[in-house]
From TrEMBL, chains A, B, C:
Keyword S-adenosyl-L-methionine tagged: yes
Domain S-adenosyl-l-methionine hydroxide adenosyltransferase C-terminal intervals: 180-261
PANTHER family cross-referenced by the UniProt entry: CHLORINASE MJ1651
Protein name listed in UniProt: SAM-dependent chlorinase/fluorinase
Similarity comment text for this entry: Belongs to the SAM hydrolase / SAM-dependent halogenase family.
Highest taxon above the source species: Archaea
Length: 265, 265, 265
């Protein structure tokens, strides 16, 4: 199985699929190709929220604002999963999530690649062939891939040779308030913060202030009328600022990166 | 085979796919994930217009404005097809279409589910595991699924214990006029009404008034100039109000639910 | 393997997939379904830039402004590939590219089809069944498909019985200037011209004027600051007018079909 994630829109992902399918008959599964453009943090977030649900697979992830520069390429292996991506941090949060759930280690392999056909589409010319090669040789045998390029094992926490990481900021939570930020706005317009869902424990049925705007704390969208603001624990385990049948980000005036302060109303 | 339909946009459907693929190696086919948000009637329409074209399959359909409330979950079985969906009517029109084409019966199974991980993403936590389980046990053996939850067979027309249904309004058609409404506006901007296509029999080459706006009655879009309004029988068998290379809904000022009166011009 | 390309948006492609999957268990791969509406030249361009990357396959391509008129249907065979499409030229550029890379010939088969169920959705009622039939009989045996319809082999260059072709205009290039046009604007907003990338040979690090607007000639997007204009060789081998992390078409004021004149600044 080989999953594909990018910010390429359409139809560039198809070229990647063709390249992959010339080299392997892996089952292909699209994760998303409309991730926010060149936004490594958002892509890392969505990979963390989707890839761990999959059975062991090779995951091709290309959100790559540094395409054509001298940034490296990495294979991040965790259990039976291998994430093939640019060395910009996009792979690490998903890998750490998988590692934590199975209590296993994350291994990073940085590799060089021959000068590709294009300097603007490494998804097609660098990462797709690499992902196909990993799928063909098997995730357990990534080390044997010197046919592609010299692979170097790099500890993710090795300061000297470390691969690039992406860490989400942590919210500050006290008994009565939480300060965090919006990590992403999803397709529904829900503003997903980094405040742990546990902050809402015992508050269901009450009201919270979000940067001064009051909203009901509920379990289900339909617990408030259509068009009404609400605060709930989203499917990622974080506090979300939403609107039933509407766009929470608009109603609360929130965008990715914005500060969010939740206080008792 | 397992098809997926939702209003989730991207990348939430990927989490559903991961959940399914951990439990079964069914071939996955996306129907659509950009259906109008929380619009059960539109989803029911599009399921009716797509699912019957498939060979026997499990169909996971999640357009679910009541997510997290106490609405039930259903498996609707018709021939070798099983539609796994919230109990909000979204599955019934497609099932009735399949039943009518093969002259077979529709069976509904309502089931309870354990409290899921999230109250906002039952697609991932309730319906995807259920669809995978139905695929694994086989559509013919849905009754044996008490491992998941107690299944209760409910006749769709049993007023007492009936599952929720969704019925499209019927147009009123006389010899010289038809009164109906817009069921959906498709991606091309075509305003698809509930007026049967047979209303246009013998009118090709003529003109009709749509709420007072005249339009040619034609067989093909290209029968009028680019930008010109037209009325034709769409691929669903209903009268559509379209524009060649344009958006009929805009040109006629029509939105889903709007009344449409077709009269001789 | 059977790929699908259209301008149908969603969810009409699903009906085509159902029709195909009732007739064959071919692996399905989506190329794109959001191509510019009714734009045969753009579709021909994107088919040329994606289909040749695939292993031998049947390619169902339906961008079809003449749907319901008397335009013909074609199967274009090149090596192990067969493109099933309306006879409007959409298939030829991809076929020629595949032929050129493998030094093989392009063969065209025009066929008639029985009057289909709808006059507006030949993707579902004409081309999907034809593509499935080609897949089932095998690309090498297209001639045997008189079960579907009488097939007629037509040389693409035979003026008398020629199938419809689509040829991209060629740019005029001199030592110091190039005059061409924008072929397409991609999802990133990059304005892709027909000026061969070789025009930028030796100019990297310099500046060019695009219709009077200056821009750096670079190798990678990130070679200029975010928001800055640039000119580079795109992944298709043509000169692109782009903006790092922005939309080049907007910044340069370019749309498909616009004239582009590149001169030394």
């Amino acid at each position: 199985m080989l999953t594909l994630t990018s910010d390429f829109g359409s139809p560039y992902p198809a070229a990647m699929k063709g390249v992959v399918l010339r080299r392997t008959d892996a089952r292909l599964v699209d994760i998303a190709h409309d991730l926010p453009r060149q936004d490594v943090r958002a892509a890392a977030f969505w990979c963390r929220e989707t890839l761990p649900y999959f059975p062991p697979a090779v995951h091709l992830v290309v959100v790559d604002p540094g395409v054509g520069t001298d940034r490296d390429a990495v294979v991040v292996r965790v259990g039976g999963h291998a994430i093939v991506a640019p060395d910009n941090g996009v792979a690490l949060p998903a890998a750490r999530r998988i590692a934590a759930e199975a209590d296993i280690a994350v291994e990073c392999f940085r590799y060089e690649y021959a000068d590709p056909a294009s300097s603007t589409f490494h998804g097609r010319d660098v990462f797709a062939p690499a992902a196909a090669a990993v799928h063909e040789v098997g995730v357990d045998a990534v080390e044997s891939l010197d046919a592609i390029a010299p692979l170097e094992s790099v500890a993710p926490d090795d300061a000297a040779g470390a691969v690039v990481d992406c860490r989400f900021p942590e919210a500050e939570v006290t008994a009565g308030a939480a300060s965090g930020e919006v990590l992403v706005v999803d397709d529904f317009g829900n503003a997903i913060t980094n405040v742990p869902g546990s902050f809402l424990d015992g508050r269901e049925g009450g009201t919270l202030s979000v940067n001064g705007t009051e909203a009901a704390v509920v379990r289900a969208f339909a617990d408030v009328d259509a068009g009404e603001r609400l605060v709930t624990v989203g499917s990622h385990g974080f506090v979300e600022c939403d609107v039933n049948r509407g766009r929470g980000a608009d109603a609360f005036g929130l965008a990715p990166g914005d500060e969010v302060r939740l206080t008792e109303a």
